[in-house]
Amino acid sequence: MDAYQNVGIKRRLRRFFRRDGRALIFAMDHGFEHGPTDFEEHWKHVNPRIIIKKVMRAGIDGVMMLPGLARIAGNDVKPDRGLMIKLTSKTNLRPKDDQLLQSQLGYVEDAIKLGADAIAATVYWGSPQEDVMMRQFAEIASYAHDLGFPVVQFAYPRGPYINEKYGKKEDYRVVMYGARAAVESGADMIKTYWTGSRETFAKVVDAAAGVPVLLSGGAKTENPVDFLKVVYDVVEAGGAGAVVGRNIFQRENPEPLIKALIRIIHRNEEPEEAAKAEGLL
Ligand SMILES: O=C(COP(=O)(O)O)[C@@H](O)[C@H](O)[C@H](O)COP(=O)(O)O
């Protein structure tokens, strides 16, 4: 028999992942991490209740938010979809030297009170502050697991040594190192960067040894098909889907893009085919 908390972890993960083991999750932490200017393209989306209603209608599998935003809009996330609460963050206002640290801004209890189905935290692997984020993650994961909650790691390699040795943080060797570090530190789901090709992303997936790896969306692409192609390659590489912010909320009407992403992630449709079906081409 499973321990009680293992049942809780499995049940809660199912609110994000469909039977195919894949998920499309909407990210809405940009007002804090990047600043409200991220919403200026479509200013009404700065209101989480407006954009979350749109993504729900389009069929998104889950939503990720910081605790205070979940207080405002968590209830708009339908009960059969996953609510992920992230407990660490940083503002863009910090001095440059402190940008490589994510600080804890809430507690596991807060996420539980808010109805979370999963609890997330970032680790910048390779940062001079890596030790602080490892400890934060360990404390959050240990407590959340005890209470039956899955833990998501935003496993982002970032730091001076990485740039020196690998040239860029998206080099697959360092992305797969971050994914592996996430697995070995106890993550149940991993969010990380695109490595630029299907072949290299497949190595990241292998390094994660069965823990689902989701793409971190990145900046909005002018042509939506370009983004669909990346997500297609992610799932072809064995990735478990995507966590997407700007490519959704920086479009006035994000519903066709979300529906096209769902076709790719859950129905294995090709990018152009999915784009045509949703009127994007
Ligand atoms: O991880 C984040 C920020 O990463 P960043 O420091 O901008 O590389 C989150 O703010 C976002 O949730 C994540 O980037 C997903 O949103 P998009 O990249 O798709 O906008």
UniProtKB/TrEMBL annotation:
| Highest taxon, organism lineage | Archaea
GO cellular component entries: cytoplasm
Q: Sorted alphabetically, which SUPFAM superfamilies does this protein's record hold?
A: Aldolase
| Gene Ontology BP, a term | glycolytic process
Record-listed E.C. numbers: 4.1.2.13
| Active site annotation, chain numbering | 156 (proton donor), 191 (schiff-base intermediate with dihydroxyacetone-p)
Q: Which GO terms describe its molecular function?
A: fructose-bisphosphate aldolase activity
Query: Where is this chain's protein located in or outside the cell?
Result: Cytoplasm
Q: Which reaction does it catalyse?
A: beta-D-fructose 1,6-bisphosphate = D-glyceraldehyde 3-phosphate + dihydroxyacetone phosphate
Give UniProt keywords alphabetically.
Answer: Cytoplasm, Glycolysis, Lyase, Schiff base
Q: Hey, which family's this protein in?
A: Belongs to the DeoC/FbaB aldolase family.
> Which NCBIfam families does the entry mention?
Fbpase1_Arch, PRK07226.1
The identity of this protein, by name, is: fructose-bisphosphate aldolase
Source organism of this protein record = Thermococcus radiotolerans
What taxonomic lineage is listed for the species of origin? Answer: Archaea, Methanobacteriati, Methanobacteriota, Thermococci, Thermococcales
